Structure formats: structure tokens, C-alpha cells
Amino acid sequence: MARTHGKALAAWEEELAEAKDNPPTDRHALQAAEFRGSWESLWSDDFGKFEDTTKIPSMRFTDNPAPLFTARVCHTVQIFSVRVAGDPNLKLTGPTRAVAMVCPVTFEVELAVKGASESEDKNLSYLAVELIRPTWGDSSLLIRDYTSKLSTLELTLGHIFYSVEATISVQVIGGSWHGYRCQFSACTESLNQEVLLLDSGDEEMPVTGDGRIELSRKVASVEHKGKLKVFVKAWHGDYLLLQDKVFIAKEAGRSHRKLDVGFCKFKITVAWSLVTVDYNPKKSLL
């Protein structure tokens, strides 16, 4: 049985008091403990555990119209990169859908270096920080630094003004990619800051039996009257090939373009959707 709001609030207050009696080693960690405890107490009965992957998929309204008040063109936050100061960018695998910039948006980060056992793990960063939507009327790049006892975390974010969701897929339709390092990325033209979709590095590009490339990330936000650029970079030794295609944003449906980098041909598909702003977990998704 779901807890009442009063019981949930009481449980959260108890957890908060316990955290203050046994405080973490820095203020960001204390804030993160408070945030997670309050979220679990108030929302877990409806939305599942804090660590669960969202139940809201991308492409929710690509093929079906959105019911009234559930989705719209809206401000979104785009995560470009997360890095620990002095180290390369961490490999991101999400978000898996566009994130509506409802004020405030809270970022929860827990980073650790794995040891031989869990007790030997070394915490690098534990924080939950709020991002308030900028008041100016254009898309903008936001860089935020957060320093804990052991590390400084740098987030590179984008506030995408009145935007829609773009879900990107890539399929090999000709040629061979073997022997090449490939990198796929996308950006909205207004910011010219790329979302890294896949970097194969020194490994074989992950391709399914029907030629579809398994991207690490696939979702970007684009101004509803803007344009999305999708890039393919390919290296063979020191030789670099670079191609891109431009897509005009839509509120629904799909856009298709073919891209030829010489050794290989790709089909790029962008599925467009309005951004989910209201979700009732007790009703089935469309």
C-alpha cells in the first residue's frame, strides 16, 4: 500500500536527522544524502527505486499524438559532458530521453574508483545540485564546477530554448567499416556543442546483424525552429574523414538522410517527438 504524504514526509525527516547526526565528509555529500532520502520517501511508491532507469521512453509521440497537457515544445537541458578535473570526459550512456527543464532540475552524481572489493572503493564525488533555468531567451551553454574533498567535477550542459526531442539511429547500408575508428556526434546549430553518440576507439564498431550501429547515446534536444547536425568522423591511421548532414526540426515523424564517407555508407534516421512534461505512472504509456 502506498504511504500517505504525511508518512512519507515523516520518514524523510527521520532520514535527514540521521544524516545530520552522522554527516558525510563534505557539504555536497550531505546535500546528496538529503536529496536521495527525500526522493525515495516521497516518490518511490509511484516511480520505483531511485536507481531505476526511467520508465518514460524516447520517441513517445513520434507516431502518436500527445494527449492534452502531457507533452509540448519546451525548454530542455542537454548534457554534453561530465569530467573529473584532469581526466578525460567520462563515457555517458544517457539521458535516454529529452529532459524538460522544470525548475529546478536536480543532477545527482555518485562517482567512485572501484577497488578489489566494495570496501576498498574510493569515492570521488557524491552530490545532488540544482540547475535553475536561465532567464534569457536563447539557448545557452552552461559550465558548472563542483569541488569535493577528493575531486572537482565539471559538467558541461546546454539550456535548449523551446525545443523538441530528436532520437538518432544510424545504419550501415554499404561498404565496410573494418579498420577504421569511427565517431558519431550531433549538435543543435545554435550552440555548436557536440553530443558524443559513439566513439569506437580502438575497438570494432558495434553493429547488429541488420547493420544498425549500437550508439552509446541517441537523444538530443533541438530548438523547434532550429536544425540538428549529425557528424561522422572516421580515422584510418592519421587520415581523417569528416561528413555531416543537417536535419530541420519537426514536432513528430521521422527524417532520413544518407551519408557517404567513401569506405562506407550510412543511413541516418531522426525520430522527432514533443517533450514529455507530465507522466502518470499508473496509466500505460502510449
The sequence of SSEs as H and E is HHEEEEEEEEEEEEEEE
Average of pLDDT: 85
β-strand percent reads: 35-45%
**Major β-sheet profile:** 7 strands, antiparallel
User: Are there runs of 5+ residues with pLDDT below 50, and where?
Assistant: 1-9
Structural class: mainly beta
Q: Give the number of DSSP strands.
A: 15
Protein name: DUF6598 domain-containing protein
InterPro entries: DUF6598
Organism: Eleusine coracana subsp. coracana
Domain DUF6598: 86-270
Give a verbal description of the structure.
- This is DUF6598 domain-containing protein.
- Residues 86-270 form the DUF6598 domain.
- InterPro entries: DUF6598.
- By secondary structure, this protein is mainly β.
- The protein is built from two helices and 15 strands.
- Strands 2, 3, 6, 7, 10, 13 and 14 form a seven-stranded antiparallel sheet that branches.
- A hairpin with a 4-residue loop joins strand 6 and strand 7.
- Helix 1 packs antiparallel against helix 2.
- The radius of gyration is 21 Å and the shape is globular.
- The two termini are 26 Å apart.
- 26% of the residues are buried.
- Residues 1-9 have low confidence and may be disordered.
What brief labels describe this structure?
DUF6598, disordered N terminus, DUF6598 domain-containing protein, four-stranded antiparallel sheet, globular, mainly beta
Please sum up the structure shown.
Residues 86-270 form the DUF6598 domain. The protein is mainly beta and 286 residues long.
